[in-house]
Amino acid sequence: MIKITRIILPALALLLASCGGKEPLYQEQAYVFGTQVDVSIYGEDEAKARQAVVLVMREFQRLHDKLHAWKPSELSNLNTAIAQGKSMRISPELAWMLKDAARVSAQSDGLFNPAIGSLVKAWGFQAEDFKAVLPVKKKIAALVKANPKMSDLVIGTPEVKSRNRAVKLDLGGYAKGYALDRAAEILKKQGIRNALINIGGNVLALGMHGSRNWRIGIQHPRRPGPIAILELHDGEAIGTSGDYQRYFELDGKRYCHLIDPRTGYPVQGVEAVTILTHGEHAGLLSDAASKPLFISGAAGWMAAARKMHLDEALLIDAQGVVHLTAAMQKRLKFIDESTPREVMP
User: Fold this and answer.
1) Are residues 145 and 189 in the same domain?
2) Which of 17, 31, 123, 269 would you call most buried, defined as having the most Cβ atoms within 10 angstroms of its Cβ?
3) CA-to-CA distance for 112 and 183, rounded, in angstroms?
4) Are 60 and 79 in contact (CB under 8 A)?
5) Spatial separation of the C-alpha atoms in residues 305 and 165, rounded to whole Å
6) Is the pLDDT of residue 197 over 80?
7) Is the domain of 218 the same as that of 138?
8) Interstrand relation of 159-162 and 226-232 (parallel, antiparallel or unpaired)
9) What does the alpha-carbon distance between residue 45 and residue 225 come to, in Å, rounded to a whole number?
10) Bridge partner residues of 162 (DSSP)
11) Euclidean distance between CA atoms 73 and 171, whole angstroms
């Protein structure tokens, strides 16, 4: 089970505690989905806020248990069935997720590809601790040649099968976003109007923080603390994909968990991508839609952003230059105004 403690991330605390005096702000933290999660609720009775957060954390644990890619779960059971060439009856919820993930994958021309779980495992990222060991090149080449993709799935009612036994599902780039939207639904049903939900850097805002919008920091990929500050409006979400949380280094080279399905290798030349999303399923989109931009790299990220219908996005390259859209530039306040950046038209 997840452990809940009443503390929050230092960087987030810095922004939330910017007003003097004791505020009606209830905050809890836990560890789930392999990362730190935080829920902050403003302006509510503590007992009401606590009960709402308990329900949210319980939902996070349920989804973690359901979608775990390498421990016993509904998803791992489906992977076993696919590897055996069998079909499997799944829950309507998982069927919806797979259909939606397949839609996002198609929109990204396959750069967002939850079917490459075997590649993720080969690089050692389906584990709690990462070892600095490179996989055998021939194995990576064989996995890429097998070409597992979301369109291989035949998602029926209620059974799922795959036309390609090489498909191994890993929803690590999707689940956090889905969980954000579920948390927002739960809080609203509990009568919570003002809250901030943070799952490992994927953040969704409800309402306001008192008389102002919620303020969050975008993590600097190479130094402690934020590189810029952004105000989130009601219903907006922000998602970041970076090479600085799940990675290992070998011979001076960094290998992160974000793998290009076309090559089978971790993406190089990009430190982070951050996107801002709005509207229905904003949380889900904040998680899944950042991956195609990261994989496309500094040369192709803008084209990927257009395909994903993202107006507010940024990419930080290996030299620390921030490439961003004009719309994103308007939303940010950089901590250091001398930060090198290139604004795209």
Assistant:
1) no
2) 123
3) 24
4) no
5) 31
6) yes
7) no
8) unpaired
9) 31
10) 153
11) 12
Residue with tokens 């590189």: 227
Number of structural domains (the chain) is 2
d(CA 166, CA 145): 10
CA dist 62 and 67 (Å) reads: 9
Taking the C-alpha atoms of residue 69 and residue 234, their distance in angstroms, rounded to an integer, is: 32
Helix or strand or coil: residue 23? coil
pLDDT tens digits for 98-126?
A: 999 999 999 999 999 999 999 999 999 99
DSSP code of residue 329 = H
pTM of the model: 0.93
The set of residues, in sequence order, having a beta carbon less than 8 Å from that of 17 and lying 6+ positions away, is none
Contact of 12 with 23, CB cutoff 8 Å:
no
Half-sphere exposure of 117 (CA within 13 A, CB side): 26
Residue at 2 is within a domain: no
Residue 44 to residue 23: CA distance in whole angstroms: 10
3-state secondary structure of 95: helix
For 92-213, where are the E strands, in sequence order? 153-155, 159-162, 195-199, 202-206
User: Is 4 within a domain?
Assistant: no
Classify residue 72 by its DSSP letter: S
